[in-house]
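Hi R.,

Here's the chain you asked about this morning:
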Amino acid sequence: LNTPIPKIAQNGIYDCSYLAATWGMPVRGMVWDTMLMHHCLYSEQPHSLAFLASIYCHEPFFKMMAKEASSADYQTAHWEYNALDVVCTLEAFHQLRGELKHYGLEDFYLSYYAPLSRTLARIQSRGLLIDATARDALRDKLTTEVGEIQSRINDLAEQDINPNSPKQMKEYVYGVLRLPEQRKRGTRTITTDDKALSTLRRKYPRHEEFINLCLEARGKRKSIGTFLKAFEDPDGRVRTSYNIAGNSRRADAAGGAETGRLSSSTNIYGRGTNLQNQPKWARELYVPDPGWVFWQGDLSSAESYIVAWDSGDEGMFKVLTDHSLFGDGRPDKIYYHEFIGSIILGIKPEEVVGDLRDLAKTVGHGYNYSMGPKTLMENVNNRQPHLRFTQATAKDCFRSLDNNLQGLVSWRHRVKSSIRQTRRLRNCFGRQRIFFGRLEDNTYREAYAFLPQSSIGDQINLSLIELEKRFEGRNDIQILGQVHDSVFGQCESSSLDYVESNVVEVLQRELPMQVYGTQLRIPCEFKHGANWKETS
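And here is the predicted structure, written out as tokens:
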């Protein structure tokens, strides 16, 4: 990179053919590094080279030259376009490295982003074996069920209605049934989406059967189209693409998750799928190689632990440390959701079971991140429609938690104050996020979510790197992926004890957070089974 750049004597511009041919491959290898550095610094912004060149370079927009390269003037446009890619990448690379040093993030970048890229590359190349026969049989079964549901919908409506057709649904729901029009927030356009139908089902129970059938048909069709397609590679394995800094093939790429959590998508060949949104029933289709077993390590109530330690709320702290990981003779199970349920329902923790525990879990997560009462009502009614949860009930739940979790209330005030003053937050590992948006409720909610979600994401990814090192050179153990707060893989049965001891040890390592003289450790639940579902 210290080689002098030759220039054309006549006009002093760079010798494009020399740059592209000589520097092309090594410098274009920096494109990924450049995107990762920018994501580390400014996770909210796009990270494509087109965007970076507009910020860090003095070159006019040149990406249209890729299309010109197919014209009669191919040779000149080709060399110039590639040379500009090389020069702009180098220029952005050096400036971004300087910014990493300025913000004190260089060590974090070198110890996290670089090794994680290598680890993920190996994980992605392995893929997961899918039981194609079971997948096809399940798809046929759901297709038959959708046909039966469709017949019942048509009988009830006394006409043919496609639940997936917005036009037909609007005409029937708002025209024939004469139900009040539901509108989307922001755009105020009339809609019959799932949220709108769930609202109408709660308000007009006489139409509950029709709405339930429509929602069921939509759900099954989505399952068929999203989770039961043939997206495996020719060798029968499903390979995803874990994205740290977004999709560089799009000029408007918004990047990976602003919290630093990985996203998952199809691979570079257009095959594969998102492995992080697979429902539990679909995970049964993913099986280990013959003679191997699936395993998974899962951090229990992970985000609640981060919130408790960062806020210093005494009530949350006591419940979450009343666990065997923090002392001998304590219970193995965490009773955090039972604790939340006892507050909002006014009953004993041991009475918070079944539907009440599921309700407490939804309310607790919503409260941690300052969810609005209306949104909470919609979430509860979508998941547990039989509870008839109202907006007034949601307000009562939040009011009860406000009165009992004063530390959490103060924590939100501190986060909001920090955003107002500096627009910047750092998690326990040193990852920063700069908030560029308007200072409004949505921005503050993103700030509340950043600290726990980014900390858990970084803990999981650092654990991936460490486990990959520990398992290196072994042919009996493989890491296959991660889902935000868990790591999963496969191994030979004889190696299961070794895998469990290492996974639990690594995932339960202390995080750099301390409150009341206690260092944070999050319990890890380890499971193994004959397929992915049995470990979830």
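One quick note: The chain has a mean pLDDT of 88.

Cheers,
M.
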